[in-house]
User: Which sequence fits this backbone?
């Protein structure tokens, strides 16, 4: 998915690293092998990147400069597609299983901003620190997501659940994941991961209090990704 | 980080959380938090002390008998703009260190199969 962009920007000094947030590493592997990426394609079963970088959804991107300093914290990120999928058309197709129809309809209303994102990325690759999209360290910290007691405990609960899931105590995981969902409802990687393990379509199940369709309806599909804040860096 | 006892190995703690243990305390970027005593040379750390001083949740699963020490609750997801070290396996099982990207710009981007 990111291969074409990587080919364009790697000669200009950018490396792209993809990180799959999959508790079951085997779930991500076939996807990676199919695309034969020539950039690092990592698997983060414990969602450590959520904890260390403040990632709350996919796709989310973080920019790191040549010196290892973050210049944009986690935010929605999209590779350009020549033709974005027509979710609405898919939803209207008679071949679509009923349980997917609602998901596709909602997906068609999700706000995505690939053009704006890529213009900013290309500007940074060309101009480095002088780019208006490269933020100062103070602004990076200030613009990173909230991490109070609730969010910190949500991270611990999620990690505990994934550890139990992977160490053969799967029956003990859902109670911690439910707590993670309650404590940090804005973290979609926690919710979608847990829902998927109960039902591949992320539909309602006895294990979890909600599901993708219900939670997206509640906030409105247009709010699934917060709007990109591409306002110029305030300090340099 | 997952703990089987309340004793924390300092090296694992540093690698997993991005906090460095120094004579003045636990440090991340410009932020340093004093711990009870100089722990930079100590064999093991007490998870309860780290939890209290750094605002890290310490959650126990009674059935499994394990704990999880979560990230610091200091207001924002990033305590410092310095990119924390993170080592993850690639799809062939090789370990990749994010710090090996120094000298070039990097876009780290998440996705998932779900």
Assistant:
């Amino acid at each position: 998915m990111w291969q074409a962009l990587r080919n364009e920007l790697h000669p200009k000094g950018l490396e792209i690293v993809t990180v799959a947030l999959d508790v079951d590493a085997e779930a991500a592997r076939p996807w990676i092998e199919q695309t034969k990426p020539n950039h690092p394609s990592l698997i983060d079963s414990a969602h450590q990147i959520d904890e260390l970088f403040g990632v709350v959804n996919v796709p989310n991107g973080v920019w790191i400069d040549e010196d290892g300093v973050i210049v944009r914290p986690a935010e929605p990120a999209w590779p350009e597609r020549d033709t974005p999928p027509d979710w609405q058309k898919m939803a209207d197709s008679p071949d679509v299983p009923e349980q997917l129809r609602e998901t596709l309809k909602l997906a068609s209303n999700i706000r995505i901003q690939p053009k704006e994102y890529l213009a900013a990325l290309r500007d940074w690759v060309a101009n480095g620190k002088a780019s208006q999209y490269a933020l100062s360290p103070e602004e990076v910290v200030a613009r990173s997501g909230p991490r109070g007691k609730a969010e910190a405990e949500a991270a611990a609960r999620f990690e505990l659940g994934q550890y139990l899931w992977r160490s053969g105590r799967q029956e003990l995981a859902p109670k911690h994941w439910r707590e993670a969902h309650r404590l940090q409802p804005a973290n979609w990687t926690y919710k979608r991961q847990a829902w998927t393990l109960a039902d591949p379509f992320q539909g309602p199940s006895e294990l979890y209090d909600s599901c993708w369709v219900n939670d997206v309806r509640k906030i409105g599909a247009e709010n699934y990704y917060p709007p990109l804040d591409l306002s110029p860096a305030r300090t340099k | 980080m997952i703990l089987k006892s309340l004793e924390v190995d300092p090296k694992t703690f540093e690698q997993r959380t991005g906090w460095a243990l120094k004579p003045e305390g636990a440090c991340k970027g410009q932020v340093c938090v004093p711990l009870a005593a100089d722990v930079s040379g100590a064999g093991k750390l007490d998870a309860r002390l780290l939890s209290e001083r750094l605002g890290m949740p310490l959650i126990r699963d009674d059935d499994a008998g394990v704990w999880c020490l979560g990230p610091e609750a200091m207001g924002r997801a990033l305590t410092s703009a310095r990119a924390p070290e993170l080592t993850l396996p690639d799809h062939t099982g090789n370990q990749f260190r994010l710090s090996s990207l120094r000298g070039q710009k990097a876009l780290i981007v998440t996705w998932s199969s779900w």
User: Anything to note?
Assistant: Chain B touches chain A through 53 residues (CB under 8 Å). Residues 2-72 of chain B form one domain.
